Amino acid sequence: MSLLPHQLELLAPARDAAIGMEAVNHGADAVYIGGPSFGARSSADNSVADIARLVQHAHRFNSRIFVTMNTILRDDELEGARALAWQLYEAGVDALIVQDMGLLAIDMPPLQLHASTQCDIRTPEKARFLQDAGLTQLVLARELTLPQIAAIRATTDPCRSTLEFFVHGALCVAYSGQCYISAAHTGRSANRGECSQACRLPYQVVDDRGRFVAHDKHVLSMKDNNQSANIAALVDAGVRSFKIEGRYKDMAYVKNITAHYRKLLDEVIEARQHSGDPLARASTGHTTFSFTPDPNQNFNREFTDYFVNGRQDSIGAFDTPKNPGQPIGFVTQVGPNWVDLELNDHEAVLHNGDGLCYYDLQKELVGLAINRAELVSAKKGSWRVFPKDELAGLKDLRKGVEVNRNRDVDWLHALDKKSSERRIQLWAHLADSANGITLTLTDEDGFSASAHATLALTPAKDKAGALEGMVDNVSRLGNTIFAASDVQVAFAQPWFVPASVLNPLRREAVQKLEAARATGFVRWSPGQAVEPPVAYPEDSLTYLANVLNDKARAFYAKHGVKVIAAAYENHEEPGDVSLMITKHCVRFSLSLCPKQAKGVTGVQGTIRAEPLTLINGKEKLTLRFDCKPCEMHVVGKIKTSVLKQTAKDMATSAKGVPIRYYPTRPITA
Question: What pLDDT, on the 0 to 100 scale, is given for residue 657?
Fold first, then answer.
C-alpha cells in the first residue's frame, strides 16, 4: 500500500520534532525530517526517540513521516546506516529518503524507499529505472518543465511510483547531486550533507579577453521557488506529492508555508470534487487557521517558478542572497538618531523590533532594525523610527530611498501562539437500552467505537431541553482531535441523563476511537524490484553517479553497467572537471546568449558561447556552456590542501579501504 493515484500529498519539512508536529497540525499529509546521521542537512539531526514522538502524533491523522538518509556512504558507514534504518522502522517511520543505491543491496527493513532529489531524476528513463528498482516515490529535478514532468508520468506507473516535486523554498542552482564545488574547495561534500554554499557568494565575471562582464554579483544565487500559481498544472502533469523545502527553517516558516499550500491544495481538491477525476487529500482531517498565510512574510530572496513554464530571464537573486522584504515606503528625512518614513499604505503599522532594509548606491542590501517606532501622522502615513544601530553605519541612507520591511514582528508573534486546529469529523449515535445508554462514535475514515453507561432511565421533565443538552454535551470534544458533524439521539423517549454520566461516557468513547484508529493504522509496504533486474539506461557511469561504496558499485553492475567510476569524493579526479552542472545560464541571464542574439540586426553571429571566469578572492572557476541541452558547467579542480588532508585522514582510518571500481570496460571472453 502506498499513496494512491488520486491522492495529493502536502510534504512539509521539519528541523525538529516540535516543528514537525506543527507541520501536521497545519495540514501536512507527510513530514520529512533528518535522523541522527546520514542526512543531507548535517546540522538538522534528530534522535530516534524524538522521531518516534513525531510519528505517534502524525499517525493520529494518517499523516506519514519520512526520514532523510540521503547522503552517499563510505563502506564503513553502511552497517551504521543499516542499523539506523531498523531503529527507525521500529519507531514507526513510514519511508526513508535515499540517494545511495548501496542501501538497496543490504539488509534493510521492510520500509518504503524514496528517491531523493540528490538522485538527479530528469529523464523518463531514469525515473522508470528507479521505479523498477523498487523505489516508490521519486523526487523530480526542480529544473523540469510541465511537459517533461508529464513525459515522466507517462513512462512510469502511478500505482507503483509517486511523483514528488518541490513547490516552495530555496533553490539549489545545480542539478541536485551534481555539485562538487564545496568538496573541491573545502573537503566538505554536498553529497554528504556539508555544502559550503559557494553559490551564494559574490563573483567577478570576466570574459575570455579579461574584460569584466559583472562586478560583485551573486550570479549563481537563485531566487526562491514558489509554485503557488502552478499547483493545478502540476497536478495535471502527474505530480502527487508537493514538497516544501526547509529542514533548516524555523517554526514560523513551516507553519505559514504549510498553511499556504494546504489552502491551495484544498482548493484544487474542492474544484474537482464533482469532476470525472476527483482528487483527495492523503491524510485525514480538516485544518483551520487563526492567521492568513502569506509566503512574503517569511525569509525569501524574492520568488520564481524556475523552469516549470520554460526558461525565464528573472530567476536569479544576483544583487543579494539576503531577504529584500516587501516595499513599505520612502525616507522623507534623516535626523541625528532617527529616520522619518512615509508608508505606501497609510494604514500600515510599524512595530518596535521590525526589520527594514534598503539598497545602497552599490546595490548592496543594508539592514535597519527598529528600536522604537513612533506614529507622526496617521493621515499621511508618516512614522519616525529610531534604529538600533548608529546612523553613521547605515551607508547611503538618504531622503528618497525606498525602504522594504523584511521582518514584521507583530505577524511573527501571531505564529508564536497556537495558530491552527486540525480536526477529524465524526458522527455520534446515542441509544438507550434496558440497562442504560450507549454512545457510538464513527469517524470519517470509518473507524468506530462504543462506550456504555449503566443507569436507571427516568423520563425528562423538560423534553426539548434534555435533548438539546445531550446533543450539546456529546458535541463538546474540546482538546481532542475530533469534531462532531452530527449527533443523533435515538431514545425511545426523552430520558433525563445527567452530565455526570455523559461526560465520562463521551471521554471513554473518544479514547476507544483513538485506540481503534491506532490499531487500524496500516503501514505502507515496501516497493518491489522487478525481476530479473532491469538494465540501467546507460552502460557506463562517471564520477557524476556518486558511487562511493562497494555495494553501490555492485548494484549498478547487477543492472548491466560495465564502466563504473568512483564518486568525486574518492578523489580520483584531480584535474579540471565539471564541479557543477546547472540549467541556469549566466550568459543568458546577462543577455549574452547566442540564441538571444538571433535575428538582432548587427548582432547575430557576433555573440558566441565562449567560456567566462568567476572570481571570488583567490578562487577561480570557469563557466563553459553546452548549448544543445542548454546547460552550464562550472569547471574547476580539487585543491591540493584538500587532497593532502584526505590522504592524511585515509592513512589513519577505515576510510582508506580500497573500493573496486571498473574505470574501463572489463575484458569478456
Answer: 53
